[in-house]
């Protein structure tokens, strides 16, 4: 197992890695809207939070030497499933032709009271 870390994505807020590589897979920990330049949570609307998350995921993938086209599976956690359409629209801007498998679930609470969290599995 190899730990993947980049300054272009937020530092972990707990005892975990931004991502790990195991054989030909990259597992990116759940990302919330943390600005990597300040390491502060961006308490904003769900669209802004989703954009920040997707940019952080892109940065971690780039550190691993791959891109969004290598994503196999995503899991989206929403505080309110009524935000699904907005999140789906932003998410779709990042996955145009390549459409990974995905699960979306509503949860009662996320770290920092985020509105959305996204985790990713990618392949080399």
What does this structure look like?
- With 124 residues, the chain is of the alpha+beta class.
- It has one domain: 60s Ribosomal Protein L30, Chain: A (2-Layer Sandwich).
- The chain has a six-stranded mixed beta sheet with strand order 1-2-3-8-6-7, with helices on one face. The chain has a two-stranded antiparallel sheet with strand order 4-5.
- α2 links the parallel β6 and β7.
- α1 runs parallel beside α2.
- The longest helix has 18 residues.
- It is globular and about 35 Å long.
- The protein starts with a strand and ends with a strand.
User: What's the CATH C level?
Assistant: Alpha Beta
The CATH topology assignment is 60s Ribosomal Protein L30, Chain: A
| CATH homologous superfamily label | RutC-like
Query: How many helical elements?
Result: 2
Would you tell me the overall average pLDDT?
A: 97
Count of β-strands: 8
The backbone outline, from C-alpha atoms, is: globular
- The protein's oligomeric status is single chain
Biggest β-sheet: count, sense, barrel? 6 strands, mixed
Number of structural units classed as domains: 1
- Helix-strand makeup class: alpha+beta
Quote the distance from N terminus to C terminus: 14 Å
Q: Helix content range of the residues, please? A: 10-25%
């Amino acid at each position: 197992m190899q730990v993947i870390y980049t300054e272009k994505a937020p530092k972990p807020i707990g005892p975990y890695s931004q991502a790990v590589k195991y054989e030909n897979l990259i597992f990116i920990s759940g990302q919330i809207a943390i600005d990597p330049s300040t390491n502060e949570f961006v308490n904003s609307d769900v669209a802004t939070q989703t954009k920040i998350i997707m940019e952080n995921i892109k940065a971690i993938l780039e550190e691993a030497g791959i891109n969004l086209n290598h994503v196999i599976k995503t899991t989206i956690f929403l505080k309110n499933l009524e935000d699904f359409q907005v999140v789906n629209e932003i998410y779709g801007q990042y996955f145009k032709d390549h459409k990974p498998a995905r699960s979306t679930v509503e949860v009662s609470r996320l770290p920092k009271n985020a509105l959305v969290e996204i985790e990713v599995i990618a392949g080399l």
